Amino acid sequence: MIENRPGLNILAHVTLILGVVVVAMPVWVAFVASTHTATDFSSGTIPMWPGPHLVENYRTMLDTGLSTSGTPPVGQMMVNSMIMALSIAIGKICISMLSAFAIVYFRFPFRGLAFWCIFITLMLPVEVRIVPSFQVVADLGLLNSYAGLSLPLIASATATFLFRQVFLTIPDELTEAARIDGAGPMKFFRDILLPLSRTNMAALFVILFIYGWNQYIWPLLITTEPQYYTIVAGIKRMADVVDGLPKWHLVMATAIMAMLPPVAVVIGMQRLFVKGLVETEK
Q1: Contact criterion met (CB below 8 Å) for 150 and 86
Q2: Is 103 within the bounds of a domain?
Q3: Which of 7, 34, 203, 270 is deepest in the core (most CB within 10 A)?
Q4: pLDDT score of 169 more than 80
């Protein structure tokens, strides 16, 4: 029997509301700032209600960008970020699924060692290996290219581990039945493992897409031509003004637009994302 305690319900709702306010307040301030002009912030006070320049500011960033910072229009930077995020997410899922499939279903010498060699790379994020990674990308002539933005970040030990755990939960009887029916390794992978891993793939796609979209150090390091700037690195360049003050109203408009694709991915794939995180039985 579940007891109805109004006091606890009120406390829970008050806590949730406070949490939402704390999380949403910076977003609200950024949105309000994006609807005003630069002079509205010269007094040192931040307006808390939207102004009349919303359409003007967003149109300026979408059409021409902020020329004083050397960045292209926001639309082009968002396309670059989209290409990078999709390449990283899809590449990580494909490579991780194939590597986990090989480790679980193929018997070859040192397969356990191979898995742990992959897993130990968790201790080597891109920030740790950024100098050798930059040297390799530069030697291959991949600076200022989509391949240079994406390829060094595609390998994922975390996704390999998660898919390995998923494949280990699949009954051996299913594998034997597929073998009796004459299914080869790739047919078993395509017709059985892929459908069973759909929700896990969706959950990983959301996480990896946001990971790729929010990359900052790597794009800032290897891109020097404006046509390859990503949106997150572009915001940093807009805020760094040598002579004069940053145009914060335009920077905030860019920040708001940069939030939209990740939010759309999370909302659009919410059901599969939650199911992929909590599903334990196949």
Answers
A1: no
A2: yes
A3: 34
A4: yes
Give the number of domains in the chain. 1
Angstrom distances, CA of residue 265 to CA of 94, 213, 234: 19, 11, 21
The yes-or-no verdict on residue 72 having pLDDT over 90 is no
- For residue 88, the model assigns a pLDDT of 93
Note whether residue 248 is domain-resident.
yes
Q: Quick check: is 207 in a domain?
A: yes
Number of H helices, E strands in the chain: 15, 0
- DSSP characters for 57-101? HHHHHHHT--GGGT---HHHHHHHHHHHHHHHHHHHHHHHHHHHH
The model's pTM: 0.85
- What CATH number is attached to the domain comprising 235? 1.10.3720.10
- Dist CA 159 CA 38 (whole Å): 44
Domain-located, residue 175? yes
Q: Got the DSSP string for 157-174?
A: HHHHHHHHHHHHTS-HHH
Tell me which residue range forms the domain holding 88: 34-278
Please tell me the predicted confidence (pLDDT) of residue 282: 44
State how far the alpha carbon of 135 is from the alpha carbons of 23, 29, 58, 189, 230, in Å. 39, 40, 38, 36, 21
pLDDT of residue 246: 76
pLDDT (tens digit, 9 = 90+) per residue, 22-33? 988 988 988 888
Highest-scoring range by mean pLDDT, 21-30, 44-53, 60-69: 21-30
> Which is nearest to 73 in space by CA: 82, 81, 64?
64
Assigned token pair, 175: 């594998």
